[in-house]
Design goal:
Shape: globular
Strand content: 15-25%
Number of strands: 16
Strand order of the largest sheet: 10-9-11-8-7-12-13
Largest sheet: 7 strands, parallel
Helix content: 40-55%
Oligomer: single chain
Structural class: alpha/beta
Distance between the termini: 53 Å
Radius of gyration: 23 Å
Length: about 425
Amino acid sequence: MTTIEILKAAKAACPVLAGLTEEEKNLALDSMADSLEAETETILKANGLDVEAAKDKISSVMIDRLALTGARIKGMAEGIREVAGLPDPAGKVLKRIEKENGLIIEKTAVPMGVVAIIYESRPNVTSDAAALALKSGNVCVLRSGKEAFRSANAIVEALRKGLKKRGLPEELVNLVQDTSRESAKELMVADGLVDLLIPRGGPGLIRSCVENASVPCIQTGTGICHIYVDRAADQQQALAILENAKASRPSVCNAAEVCLIHREIAGEFLPKLRKKLQDCRKEAGKTPVELKLDETAAGIIEGSRAEEGDFHREFLDYVLAVKVVDSVEEAIAHIAAHSTGHSEAILTEDPEAAKKFTLQVDSAAVYVNASTRFTDGGEFGLGCEMGISTQKLHARGPMGLEELTTYKYIIRGNGQIRE
């Protein structure tokens, strides 16, 4: 089927999904999860072909994003079941007004309709997006990158088998078969067929969608995440947080890319940071983190010299830009100039510094003494996520079920007319 044909089929399936009860949707999700696990071998075989084709074309950390294992597929299935266990947002009365003339006005949450998701090399997005869309009453149209297409196709086929077992149409979950740029453009301008477009991927993809889409679009994903180590930080705690935020999985958008350090502790803390992220990791057989240092930091420890562009770059690798600042105010100003609005953290035992940071840093998630790696739908109790919105309307931060609904007014009367 062509992309437009898929969209038309998805639109036609919307009333079927809107008519399902919460219990029926939950049973469908459970069936999808069971089918996903049952098709593990088929999915792994398809994923193996994707990984083999991607070797020598993308970095090792990006290969990690692409690769699936039996454990990861099991985790994807559990994510679907978690979504099934969450409250259904569709039909929830957000506000109720009873007028003197007897009219009852209810502001009621309803699905968006057809939600299109353009993503790149993370196959798990396929099942996460499908589960969240179905539970919130939306029909999803997925458009995977070519690197992950075989994997995504196998996952969608498994999910559709689960739908068929419940007597539901396959068209509730759809995958665009064309991975060229043309199909992405078609989704961006499919007015009347796409009710919401969500891009998940690199800056180029997101910029293309924001600049070219005529359908409603949510800006997501790019994470130039900062961690500011204040002069009042618990330094041992800060070292553990920084290693987790940078090195636990550097290829994801909530990984730290920039470390800002207060000048008063820089001479003491930077050697500890270098030892923690380089020497200790080498001794443990782990990949060391390259430190890109500003002029002040480079005068204290050895490392690569940072260029200005390094403080405005999402490395998605074992690389951390390091800058020494004079105050919490300078840290906040630097973040305002370079952040993508994703996640930032302050490490401090000073409540006033923490208060100033949380009030003045304008990002979707702002942490005090914790790793930025927690910015995730599952960690935030949303089951999984459709993406991380870095804009302010209508969604911000991890997008779960509620963010996939809009609302309409339902008015009930008994013959009232307006005088």
